[in-house]
Amino acid sequence: MNNGVNFNESWLTEENFNLPAIKKRAGELGKRRSVKKSYQAAWLFRAVTCIDLTTLSGDDTRSNVQRLCHKAVRPVRDDIVRYFGMQTKGIKVGAVCVYPNRVAECKEILKSLNADTSIKIASVATGFPAGQTPLSCRLEEIRRAVADGATEIDIVINRTYALNGEWEKVFEEVKEMKIACGNAHMKTILATGELGSMTNIYKASMTCMMAGADFIKTSTGKESVNAILPVALVMVRAIRHYYQKTGIKVGFKPAGGIRTAKDSLTWLSLMKEELGDEWVNNEMFRLGASSLLGDIERQLFHCAYGRYAAAHELALA
Ligand SMILES: O=C[C@H](O)COP(=O)(O)O
User: Fold this and answer.
1) Ligand 1 in contact with 131 (CB < 6 A)?
2) Which fold has domain 9-305?
3) Who's near 307: CB < 8 A, 6+ residues apart?
4) Tens digits of per-residue pLDDT, 205-230?
5) Which atom of ligand 1 lies at the shortest distance from residue 292's CA?
6) Which residue numbers are catalytic?
7) Considering only CA atoms, which residue is closest to atom 7 of ligand 1?
8) In the chain, how long is the greatest CA-to-CA distance?
9) Is the pLDDT reported for residue 167 higher than 80?
């Protein structure tokens, strides 16, 4: 857990960004030849355990939350898990991620499935996705989600303050949100697609970590540009700098538009190459995604059986 540090404006201004170099590096990551065969399956299973399995829709009901929880507990078909000898590894997703109104039923459903507590219940809060409600309402939303059973809270930062360059105000709000989270882990969503520049993305990352973010997260999934690699490179660089300054490890969560197994491998390799093996697990890395798991399960089926599954063979995907 990151308890944060005092606001230090000088930490925001130490970095310069060479945009062409960042884009070149991001391009290399995306085009890399992917790992093959059993190594690929192992990495895909790792990706599964890092997923925040998400539903964030206006038409969410108990029935799709129920389905989400079933998938969270048993994300990959048993025969595929057995084929790779993973049946004793307890393969589950990292968390389910829902709106605050759905937290209580998530808790109840996971309990009814005898899910162990390693599946976290994450809830977006603070006027997600825009954050345009009074601070008192945003803080109350966090407290209620935690009271209902959320063990992780994904907050959104105040983009108005960020775009005005009022970083200390961003810091103060996020700090209050951290207090409202209590023992729940706090992920801070930067909504990078709305921040305007790499410099702002770096400053927002650093400000949130100083204020106590346990994870920094790219996007809500509702912006027009969501999780992209160049932005991720800037954010993980901020994580590395914060670690060098404080000795505190903060996690990273790309979210929004991550749909394919190949994407998930690219994100994992970014973590491994930029931050090292200690960041390639679900304590330090999550993939926020509503429709990624199906493609990973399809690829694992292919790794196991050498053909793609017919739709009826992965009915819950
Ligand atoms: O936090 C997670 C995102 O809202 C998921 O976005 P997605 O639906 O594009 O996967």
Assistant:
1) no
2) TIM Barrel (3.20.20)
3) none
4) 999 999 999 999 999 999 999 999 99
5) 10
6) 217, 253
7) 256
8) 57
9) yes
